[in-house]
Write the structure tokens for this entry.
Amino acid sequence: MSADQPSRVRARVDYDLIAHQYDRQPYRQKQVDPNLPPFLAQRQQPLSALSLLDMGCGTGSQLAAHRPLVPGADLVGLDLFQGMLRQALPKSNQIHWVQGDNAAPPFPDCSFDFISNQFSFHHVRDQRAMIQAVFRLLRPNGRFVMANICPRRMPEWIYYHYFPDAYAVDLQDFMPLPDLAALLQLVGFVDVQLDFTDIDESLDLREFLASIHDRQHCSQLIAMSDTQFRSGVQRIVQDIEAAGGEPVFGPSRVCLMNLRADKP
Ligand SMILES: C[S@@+](CC[C@H](N)C(=O)[O-])C[C@H]1O[C@@H](n2cnc3c(N)ncnc32)[C@H](O)[C@@H]1O
């Protein structure tokens, strides 16, 4: 793990503060990225000749899940926060863990065949610079994949319902998808594809209230002020009290996006 500059980079959330508990949330476990097997199947060269980069790799679970699939390949995880990389380190000593900013990744041109970026793009302050860097880092015929939530397609998310300030912050931090697609094409990517998956659920408000008392489990809750957080909690308490002891459920919907773009 190399450590250099990034304390200068402004961040939406200080992940060093929550790194030790990041993996406790079951939904943070990773399987093989469904984009990877079809990419590998298309390639002619031996797997050991490939280089994969995960930008904003966090605690490294995605690369650790990929490790057995690409024996001999070069795997690199980049993250701004050393605390997250410290959690990643024990997961594999056959992955290079590098500290740095996604907007200024410390690698030469044409270093990687496959670059992934999961649930991290909205944290990057200079998103345009990051997309330019991804294109620079990919080899010809390389592929960029991104996963994230889509705030504009899920205003009914229970977090946004009770914490409208979180929605406002996300509208600023998440680049509109048409703008992102246009930017990818502008820097030279082709075959830009976007898929969406909607997940509808109905949450017991008492359980939801209990879960958010650990405010650290969700960056939307961390990114708002204490006053805004308390106001949201108050709104939940009022709805529970209004139900007068009856079970009360809050409808919720999450929209996940999967983006894919190729370097010619
Ligand atoms: C929600 S976590 C996602 C981590 C991992 N990709 C995952 O899916 O579990 C966001 C990650 O982005 C990282 N991050 C935030 N700003 C960054 C930046 N400018 N450059 C690199 N990583 C950054 C954080 O440290 C954190 O690990």
Summary: The pocket of S-adenosylmethionine is lined by residues 9, 11, 15, 28, 56-58, 79-81, 84, 101-103, 118-120, 123-124, 219 (CB under 6 Å). Residues 32 and 65 are 6 Å apart (CA to CA).
